Amino acid sequence: MLPFLLLLLPAISPASAWMPVEDWESGNVTASVGELGQCVCHVYLPETTFPADRVQHMQQVSTDLILEVDIQRNKLESYGGRLDVYLKELMDLTVRVAMLESSPDAYIKLDFELLRIELREFEAIVSQLKESLNSSSPMFDSLYTEIRNMTFIVNQLETFDKNNLEVIRIEFAKLQKKLEECQIEQEIIKPDIGNCNNTGILSISKPMVIQLNAHLSPGYQYGGWGKDSKPIRGSESMYFYGAYSTPSVHAFVLYSDYDQLLLRAGYKQHSITHGWAGAGNNYIVHGNAIYYQINSPFSMSKLNLTSSLKEYRVIPAASQKFSYSYSANQNLDFAADETGLWVMYASEQSKGKIILAKIDEKSFGVADEMNTGVFKPQAGNAFMACGVMYATRSVDVSTEEIFYAFDTKTKQQKHLNIPFKKFQEKYSNLDYNPTDQKLYMYNNGYYVSYNVRFNKE
Ligand SMILES: *[C@@H]1O[C@H](CO)[C@@H](O)[C@H](O)[C@H]1NC(C)=O
Ligand SMILES: *[C@@H]1O[C@H](CO)[C@@H](O)[C@H](O)[C@H]1NC(C)=O
Ligand SMILES: *[C@@H]1O[C@H](CO)[C@@H](O)[C@H](O)[C@H]1NC(C)=O
Ligand SMILES: *[C@@H]1O[C@H](CO)[C@@H](O)[C@H](O)[C@H]1NC(C)=O
Ligand SMILES: *[C@@H]1O[C@H](CO)[C@@H](O)[C@H](O)[C@H]1NC(C)=O
Questions:
Q1: Within 6 Å (CB) of ligand 1, which residues are found?
Q2: What does the pLDDT look like over 218-249, one tens digit per residue?
Q3: In what side-by-side order are the strands of the sheet with 222-227?
Q4: Which of 21, 105, 163, 391 could link 374 by a cystine bridge, Cβ 3.0 to 4.6 Å?
Q5: Of 419, 378, 376, 422, which is closest to residue 397 (Cα–Cα)?
């Protein structure tokens, strides 16, 4: 192949002085070198009148269109940005209100003043947002109403006792959820429930700290919460919760819906005793049954919430030697995703590396086992999403990352680095729920959730 030689001549070349001024012609277009050596191009247009006015009009229309697109894009961008800021501030507020519960009275008065001011700001933001988006979404109206209602509540408070704080905290949490739903509705984060046409997790949202656990005790640092990953009819909005001050598991609490969870009211308690006590807090609810670890005998246990029937299955290979890094006794970790029910454990044979096993729901037996490359004691936790096992680990006290993925379809593993924020350093339960594509974390006594974004190539 011959090398190309490209010569770039300056527009005003000293050579132009002796270059012949020779026209190059092709039909109705001519080109020549001008007196100063610049390139001159002549176009001879046909006799017919050139529709200059129409061209001008088209130019105007396209300028208008570009402007319009810009305006719309800016609106969307600023909307997204502001919602982000808004959500974060609300989260801070929720956390602060939760902290108020344990603060000395002296600080409370001051904080109420701030709450009032911030609510006024929120109100202004939401009405501005609504106006600038020209949105007729009923979500905005209801958000607006709720902020007004909260302002009303805060203003009404004359005594700063715990009950009133509780009311505000619940209202904040509801507002936060509404806002999140609003964000989803506006398709900034559009969940594509049940669709696994993606190449894995892309990112994890900011944490949504809902509240301190139902026992109102930061001492209840071991526990779990979430929703049924395959709810039976009528139980779609149910939430479960369990917590204790040790890694052992003695009871589960069920709430009929989110509001009941916030109010810590109207719950149904399932106490588990007489040899059925659990451990590790890596349980889930799937098909109205709780799957959890028991220690005598060391096995998978299933509590059918419909029939209250309990069953267990021993996994001979599973070892009690290997737990996750934040908590003891986490030997059997249950998970459910779009592809079914799973259990993760480590064995002596696997030298502490996680084995991923599919659970056959009918027989409640292990159907298929796969070896992964994760040394269990180095992982914070693991969960399943769209047939892929993800393992997490600590980055620092406030950051966790998904560092590993194992695809059950291709049997391929890969290293990742998808960070996400924690509210507290330690957590005992982290699970994905395919019905809302969220992660649920029990973060050292606090209910936390995240939106999961998948990579749709
Ligand atoms: C030059 O323009 C005339 C019409 O004004 C057209 O008929 C002719 O084909 C054009 N010549 C070339 C080479 O394009
Ligand atoms: C807002 O939307 C309505 C209809 O949806 C429309 O008639 C109106 O002109 C819009 N206003 C602005 C300022 O865009
Ligand atoms: C707001 O308060 C009004 C009256 O106090 C009540 O009727 C309404 O249901 C409340 N709205 C919300 C969304 O809580
Ligand atoms: C999955 O996504 C790809 C790329 O977007 C698309 O071509 C394909 O039709 C999708 N398949 C299904 C089953 O939705
Ligand atoms: C729970 O028990 C009910 C009633 O016996 C039964 O229909 C259902 O299949 C059981 N669920 C599971 C997950 O075993």
A1: 27-28, 46-47
A2: 778 899 999 999 999 999 999 999 998 888 89
A3: 222-227, 239-244, 251-255, 268-271
A4: 391
A5: 422
